[in-house]
Amino acid sequence: MPNVNFNPDKDVPDLAGKVIFITGGTKGLGAASAIHLANHDAAHIYISGRSAQSAQKIVALIRDSGSKTNVTFVECDLASLSSVREAAEAFISQTTQLDILMCNAGIVAQPPSLTMDGYELQFGTNHLGHALLIRKFLPLLQESAKEGNDARIVILTSDVWMIHPKGGIVFDKLKTVQHYWFGGPWRRYGQSKLANLLYARELSRRYPEIISVSVHPGMVATNMLAGSGYITRALIYAMSRGKVLTPDKGAYNQVWAATTSREKIKNGMYYEPVGQLAQKKLDKTARANSLAARLWDWTDEALRAF
User: Does the keyword NADP apply (predicted)?
Assistant: First the structure.
């Protein structure tokens, strides 16, 4: 549950001059994050997603709140690397600054399927699409990090990372739907969330001037389970009875990670709500730097054409 001591209205600093990009910013946690950040007058927030109609609702909500923040929609489908590349190019054509990249979008517990590029759907969407966006935006983030200025990458993961397959990431089956006889949707999801956690840590090692962390938002009532079977949805809601957060409160951890002072956050670490360092919960696989390095190399090769 959220730390009752964290209040985004009071604890988020003035964000004047900051440029922020939020994936999945048109609904759920991403929209809630955009609203929290706009309340502190960020210069410009870009929200990506697949629905311009949903985006316009968030743009209007922020505008009508009296916020000084400019909000722009960037169309992007993370399940298509061509779409991600086009979104990145559209963003870069509009600005030379990026201070905070929030990799928020994601899908949960989906039936067996592939992305448009032939990768397992959840891994391709939750990890690979974001990885391409990160690669495209790194030069802007590095520029923001110069001369002591702050630049951050906040990647949403989930405590379901612990349901990863044996070995963590099944590299030789990432171009299949990865059928499992039991718990397939959650094992595939856990694999993608483990990748998010590992990638943030490897980013921090290779680009230490940028703060890169992974965050678990808690159990949040969003539509991320759309497409999941009835039994899956019923099981999740039954297990989380009394603990489901609204998107407004569920966004606290990622908003904290994006804005807290550098003295209060450790590069490459994994955080649970709100701002609670959770490295001790990682199993041997999640702690393996060799696996993080292998994921980086595999990702580099997969994205080479883009």
Answer: yes
